[in-house]
Amino acid sequence: MSAGVTIVVDGVPRRANADATLAASLFAAGITAFRRDLDGRPRAPLCGMGSCFECRVMVDGVANVRACLEPVRDGMQVETGK
Amino acid sequence: MTPDVTVIGAGIVGAAITLRLAEAGLSVTMYESAFPGGGSSGAAMGHLVVMDDSPIQLALTAHSCRRWRDLAATLPADCEVDYCGTLWLAAAPEELDGVPRRIAAYAAHGVQAEQLDERRLHMQEPALLRGLAGALFVPGDGVCYPPAVARALTARAVELGATVRLDTRVTRLAPHEIVLADGSRCAASTTVVAAGVHSAELVPELPVVPRKGHLVITDRQPGMVRSQLVELGYLQSAHTFASASVAFNIQPRRTGQLLIGSSRELVGFDGSINRTLVAAMLERAQRFVPAVSGTRALRTWTGFRPATADKLPLIGRWSAMPDLWVATGHEGLGITMATGTADLIAAGITGSPPPVDAAPFAPDRPMTPMQEEHG
Amino acid sequence: MRRARHVDLVVIGAGPAGLAAAATAAERGRSVLLVDQGLRPGGQIWRHREERTLPTVAHRLMARARSAGVKIVMECRLVDVLSPNELVIDFRGRIDRHQTGGVIIATGARERLLPFPGWTLPGVVGVGGLQALLKGGLPIANMRVVIAGSGPLLLPVAATVARAGGRLQIVAEQASGAKVRRFASRVLRDPAKLRQAIQYRWAFRGAPFRTDSWAVRAEGDERVRAVEIIEHGRRRTIACDWLAVGAGLVPNTELGDLLHCQVTSAGIVVDHQQSTTTPLVWAAGECTGVKGDEAAMLEGETAGLAAVGDLPAVNAPERQAALEKGRQFGALLAETFAPREALRELATPETIICRCEDVRRGALESGWTQRQAKLYTRLGMGSCQGAVCGPACETLFGWTPNAVRPPLGSPLCSEWASGLGSDA
After folding, report:
1. Which residue of A has its CA nearest to B293?
2. Nearest chain B residue to A58, by CA
3. Residue A2 Cα, gap to closest chain B Cα (Å)
4. Which chain A residue is nearest to residue C134, measuring alpha carbons?
5. Angle, in degrees to the nearest 10, between helices B146-159 and C370-377
6. Contact flag C413-B296 (C-beta cutoff 8 Å)
7. C18: distance to nearest CA of chain B, Å?
8. Residue contact B219–A64, C-beta within 8 A
9. Which residues does chain C have within 8 Å of residue B255's beta carbon, measured at their own beta carbons?
10. Phi, psi angle pair for A31, to nearest 5°
11. How far is the alpha carbon of A53 from chain B, nearest alpha carbon, in Å?
């Protein structure tokens, strides 16, 4: 059992496990569109290990952060669907 | 059947020439060692820009840009022609001294240009560093995506009856024929060598050498930069490294990605990445556009500009060999000048009046040998 | 930007090969820096949230590395190399240049993902990708999962899904039954492997395991809802919440390219001492060819011995024989689980091939080269720089992947520039 942290996803606070990746936490929070492609279609993690760049989200104002490599941090501000 | 003209090279210059000759009703066969636009054209920034380092250059670029305007409407979408204009930035007030003269020179060629003060400059390009002295704005300049353009021009030439042989390297020119890498010989009469930096392999003593450049492309940043940005002081740039130099240049692409340049060095055909120059390019880019710091660098690459000692291209007859024409040496203006070059070559071959005076581009004009640049 | 201290060796990748290499070299008295972009050591195969869940061999290796004094730094991305002696490394956004006496590349492998209609839907993940997400804390309980991939990886991933409460619908292996049986009869002579296979299969006993089966289309809108599979020649559609696909593994050779090592699409080329063609650069594990974790550990250890100059140990006949067995196993894997012809024909003209730039199959001509496709369509020019579409196009069209250029991993321009800049 691990401690919980609070991350803010698209303005909504969500609980997340402190040792989870941001990608897993976003799925747990019900996010399916991590980013959108050139036609606006939703994209989400594919390779889970940082190679494919499909899981890009904005974290604390920095764009194109790979959620599958990013640890969750208490208070992190995440924006998805860009 | 011997074609009227044989063109060697399907870069943007060769493709434009082939199309122009086909439009003029001549039978053309084009040979390309790989695929259209795969050489220097594939590495290039793709700007369509009026430049006046000299009146001759101004005449050819102004004419060429007019011809690009006509052509642009007919090109497919993947050619990404975008008339975003060029902003020549003055970091210091004295860099603006020559601007009024330039505006007048442009106007004489029907090219609109205006001087912007710092306030208007900032309104137009909010991402720019504050406190620049001002800029020269040329709204009619544009950008394109050269590999797609070379491909489209080649395809159009084929529609008009040109024969195109790809994956076919020409290794030697001989009287009345050309020799291919597989040893076979093809009949040729009038031949145009538009092989860019490789032209001297076919035409010994052709005074063209590769001037290497680096480019970096970023991730998509829609709306961050609107026009092409170049520093006015680039010719006098003090940021040199031994025999290399770096100047600030950012181009927004249709995708929203930023193309960051530029560097110049004479190192033969060594295409390896020079990290020192890349670092200097990126630092300069971040200074002029601070938001570049927050963009991601996806990739860097190098390309070779076909360069001449007097900074003018080689367009015309090569008198050392019969029926031989050359069209190369455009250095950083190959994409821009492709249309004007095609017009000059076509005029020369068909005996028609050239659109601009062709004499300054004579390939066998006297030229001092290329010197290593000094820091 | 600060320049970090000199170390004797930098090992890139903290999976079985990297841990073994680092531990070995450190035990011989070298100063070793082991870096990895993940959150915890172990690479892909030993990915974990709690160390107690790891197999014994992993525990032992990590303990060896730590007690030998290996400096292990996670969340580290290699951005660029200035030479085999100077690496530019990004640790959580801070760029440092590391001076080193030598480099051991242990960057592992990634999944080969072949395009098919609907593969870009959220919820369609790699088989290894699903494993990574689950180990990263993805909740899967009560969700319907279809696994349609290839290779030994299917078993542990299926077991992980089942143990996490996922409702596994089917585990589909695209290789033929005959090939899989032949493979199993060779590998499962080893009692330990047989025991492990039985444990995995028991864990997901509720779901069928089918050879000669693969996914042909994913359906859904905002996420995948169902998958159409071919199962022994018959098509059927299975409702699902997650679809894990894959067609084997490809080695991560990019760092080898940057260090000017000889590289093929089968891996970084190494000799019997795990030396690459670049002096002072060794490579070990899956990045030299996919052969499994046992071979990876052995190769890592060998590279560590070679890097400290213990050539008698490297050249010892038993070691060389074991390394050869590892390579043979790799050849067996490649032959058994090679993507079948049918997988190359799943993409329709509308199917996206380059996911970063949305380049569809219809925009590509199979007679092109990879470079031609890149220049004409932007294929491979996006964020992943061909990591996904490169192996896909190699399988689909036989194209040789494009040259690798720096930087790696899309660093911020400011970070990369500061890492490259000369010290004042």
Report:
1. A62
2. B294
3. 34
4. A24
5. 100
6. yes
7. 27
8. yes
9. 378
10. -75, 130
11. 12
Burial C61-72 (b: 16+ CB within 10 A, else e): bbebbeebebbb
B contacts of C371 (beta carbons < 8 Å): 38
Q: Which of B224, B274, B289, B296 to mutate to test the interface with C (most CBs of C within 10 A)?
A: B296
Grouping H, G, I as helix, E, B as strand and the rest as coil, residue B129 is: coil
The answer to whether C44 and C132 are in contact (CB under 8 A) is: yes
Write the single-letter amino acid at B128.
L
C-alpha dihedral, C390 to C393 to C394 to C400, nearest 10°: -60
Q: Tell me the one-letter amino acid at B118.
A: E
- Least Cα separation, residue B145 to chain C (angstroms): 9
Maximum Cα interatomic distance, chain A, rounded to a whole number of Å: 41
Say if A40 is an interface residue toward chain B (CB within 8 Å): no
How close does chain B come to C370, measured CA to CA in Å? 12
Per-position pLDDT tens, chain C of length 424: 556 679 999 999 999 999 999 999 999 999 999 999 999 999 999 988 888 889 999 999 999 999 999 999 999 999 999 988 999 999 988 888 999 999 999 999 999 999 999 999 999 999 999 999 999 999 999 999 999 999 999 999 999 999 999 999 999 999 999 999 999 999 999 999 999 999 999 999 999 999 999 999 999 999 999 999 999 999 999 999 999 999 999 999 999 999 999 999 999 999 999 999 999 999 999 999 999 999 999 999 999 999 999 999 999 999 999 999 999 999 999 999 999 999 999 999 999 999 999 999 999 999 999 999 999 999 999 999 999 999 999 999 999 988 899 999 999 999 999 888 744 3
> Model pTM?
0.93
Q: Is A62 left (phi over 0), alpha (psi -120 to 50) or beta?
A: beta
Is the minimum CB–CB distance between C75 and chain A shorter than 8 Å?
yes
Taking a C-beta distance cutoff of 8 angstroms, is the pair C353, C333 a contact?
no
CB atoms within 10 A of CB C369: 18
- The reply to whether residue A64 touches residue B294, judged by beta carbons under 8 angstroms, is no
Under an 8 A CB cutoff, do C129 and A49 touch? Answer: yes
CB contact under 8 A, B147 and C376: yes
Q: Per the structure block, which two tokens stand in for C268?
A: 């970084």
Q: Report the residue of chain C nearest B258, measured CA to CA.
A: C413
Which residue, chain included where needed, has tokens 């569109």?
A33
Q: List the one residue out of B369, B11, B4 whose CA is nearest residue B198.
A: B11
Instruction: Provide the terminal-to-terminal Cα distance of chain B, rounded to the nearest Å.
Output: 53
Q: Give the span between the Cα atoms of B349 and B194, in whole angstroms.
A: 15
CB B294 to CB A63 under 8 A? yes
| 3-state secondary structure string across chain A | CCCEEEEEECCEEEEEECCCEHHHHHHHCCCCCCEECCCCCEECCCCCCCCCCCCEEEECCEEEEECCCCECCCCCEEECCC
